[in-house]
Amino acid sequence: KGNQEAIIQNLMSGKDTFVIKPTGGGKSLCYQLPAILSEGVAIIVSPLIALMKNQVALVRTYSSKDEIAHFLNSTLSKKEVREVHDDLLTGKTKMLYVAPETLTKPENLEFFSDLKISFFAIDEAHCISDWGHDFRPEYRQLDQLAQRFPAVPRLALTATADPRTREDIRERLGLDGEPVFLASFDRPNIRYQVQPLDNLRRQLLPFLEQHRGESGIVYARSRSRVDRLCADLQAAGFDAIAYHAGLEAEQRRQALQRFRLGSGVVVVA
């Protein structure tokens, strides 16, 4: 849909590519499909461990073989890292998701030099720019990919980049002469509505009642407010669950899992 085909064709022809698409605009397909069609393994840089795990789990649902996609990050044991390396060396893996700091370790760069790499996909590319809203210093080390792997195409993707950030991304990744595929940011399925807060309980409960059985998120300003609001909603008969950094990892995992399954849970975050 949209300019996905043009992006994929540009990458498949061996050219560097810069993609700016809104969330939900289909960025993932722009590297997942070429990765499957191309010889070798595509290395996908992602800043968040949870995002990597989600993407790998999703890709594996498309295939009968789990080794088609792996991730490399600090959560893996030495044994698990060896298993990933074995699948890469035998050509079983088509997509490898890595954190930027993992990718640029000297021993990993040395290992990747022995692989047939189809392309690098740098997701959340705005993290390389200190003009961006989510600057990550470790992304700066990705500028060495052009020098270390000059024959390997690079695909930069982001959903959020103003003109100044775009130019910074292009300069830092060496994408100066490459095409920029810019999609419209209009999201007709999303709308914002702002209302003065009068009485939270009186305003929130009727709204939730209209959407009973659906999953959704209610945001609060603080952890304590999350806990109180969650208890209020539970007392009112809603299947509510809290989500914030003060909870145990397993509690957060369960909340996220229930929300993903669309089980009618109201997450208070």
Can you give me a brief rundown of this structure?
This protein has 269 residues and is an alpha/beta fold. The protein contains eleven helices and ten strands. The strands form two sheets. The chain has a seven-stranded parallel β-sheet, sandwiched between helices.
List keywords for this structure.
alpha/beta, 7-stranded parallel beta sheet, 269 residues, 11 helices, 3-stranded parallel beta sheet
Euclidean distance between termini CA atoms: 33 Å
Beta-strand residue fraction: 5-15%
Any idea what the shape is? globular
Largest beta sheet: what is the strand line-up? 3-4-2-5-6-1-7
Question: What does this molecule look like?
Answer:
The protein has a 7-stranded parallel sheet, with helices on both faces. The mean pLDDT is 89. With 269 residues, the protein is of the alpha/beta class. The relative contact order is 0.13. It has helices spanning 4-12, 29-37, 49-61, 78-89, 100-103, 106-112, 145-148, 163-173, 200-210, 223-235, 249-260, and strands at residues 17-20, 41-45, 69-72, 95-98, 117-122, 154-158, 180-182, 216-218, 240-242, 266-268.
